[in-house]
Amino acid sequence: MSPQNLPDHRTQPDSPDLLAEQAQAWIAWLASGAVEPERMQAFEQWLKQPGHRRAFEYERQLWQAVAQPPVRAHRAPRRRAPRIALAAAAVLALLWVSPDAWLRLRADHRSGSEVVTLALPDGSRAVLDADSAIAVDYDDSERGIRLLRGRAWFEVAPGHAQPFRVRAQGGVVEDIATAFAVADTGHGVDAEVSQGQIRVAATPESGWTYLLAGQRAGFARGGQVLRQADLAPDRIAAWREGELLLDAVPVGAAVDQIARYRAGPTFVRGDLSALSPVNAALRVDQPEQALDALAMSAGLRVTRLPLGVAIVSREAAH
User: Which helix (H) or strand (E) holds 97?
Assistant: First the structure.
């Protein structure tokens, strides 16, 4: 079955087997790379129907468990292997062809080149930095957030029995009446407290590390939580107020941070590692001026091309 001929899910409930086939069809379509906006809207409407997101998540997770596929009593064993193979192949193809589409499937909220403020179902507030994404997993046992990309700041609504937890790279950051920021750096996860208290664990089996306002910690996947230098609470997640504070940041990393706020792509030509780290306070709501200011202070040249492309390189030696 292909997404073109899926039935009208609003008029009749679907059986688990049919839902599984529909989810597989959507995965296969997404893996094809032909992800048109109109079809993506149709897919998002399909996801909103009762039971559909759960079915899609199950099929999506099958590829992660190919070595030890889960057993479902109502499914015949002879059907599991083809389904697992299809799900694994389709999802891996999707990751190769269109990683951004794959992120879109998993995320409930995303940001582009601007900072986005969100109201969560329990009255908490989330602020997503540019190029960030989260999934919201609230249920009767917890108010769960998955940080899928980038960084986010949370102001947690009190008075709920369920704990508020943010998961990233296998670890968890749990609120203890607070406001805090969590960042997925690609190499690990950083947690910072702007008020109140949180606790952090790198793995479900590891112990908790408690942090107060102004304190920070980080961990790599499967590693251990390590304390970082404290910051003044008003400097934590300064990007929420449109500020990018760079303290002894390598030039290449500074370019990457500014690039997330630009509407067009940013490319680096050559090696910037020999340049001295930079200290600067820049405005992320004015990314072009921020890039030019960084270039002037760090000895860079910015070449701008059509479609918003910017090429950053070292200034030629005189």
Answer: helix 77-97
How far apart (Å, rounded) are the C-alpha atoms in residues 318 and 280?
Answer: 26
The answer to whether residues 116 and 185 belong to one domain is yes
The alpha carbons of the chain give a radius of gyration, in whole angstroms, of 22
Instruction: Choose the most confident range, by mean pLDDT, from 1-5, 98-102, 270-274.
Output: 270-274
Q: Residue 9 phi/psi, 5° resolution?
A: -75, -10
Structural domain boundaries enclosing 205: 109-234
CATH for 128: 2.60.120.1440
Contact 232, 223 (CB under 8 A): no
d(CA 3, CA 300): 49
Q: Write down the mean pLDDT value for the chain.
A: 82
List CB contacts of 181: < 8 A, sequence separation 6 or more.
151, 152, 153, 154, 190, 191, 192, 194, 236, 237
Residue 35 sits at the vertex; the CA angle it makes with 39 and 131, to the nearest 5 degrees, is 110
Residue 8 is encoded by which pair of tokens? 């009208």
Tens digits of residue pLDDT in 26-73: 776 665 555 566 777 787 788 778 788 777 777 765 643 433 333 333
Would you say residue 97 has pLDDT above 50? no
- For residues 47 and 122, membership in a common domain is answered with no
Q: Are residues 74 and 149 in the same domain?
A: no
Identity at 246, one-letter amino acid code: L
Q: Do residues 191 and 146 share a domain?
A: yes
179 pLDDT higher than 80: yes
Contacts 24+ apart (CB under 8 A), 17-23: 17/75, 19/51, 19/52, 19/55, 20/55, 20/58, 20/59, 20/83, 22/46, 22/52, 22/55, 23/52, 23/55, 23/56, 23/58, 23/59, 23/60
Q: Quote the Cα angle for 142-148-153, to 5°.
A: 70
Inform me whether the pLDDT recorded for 287 exceeds 50: yes
- Give the pLDDT of residue 107: 85
Report the DSSP beta bridge partners of residue 205: none
pTM, 2 dp: 0.68
End-to-end CA distance of the chain: 64
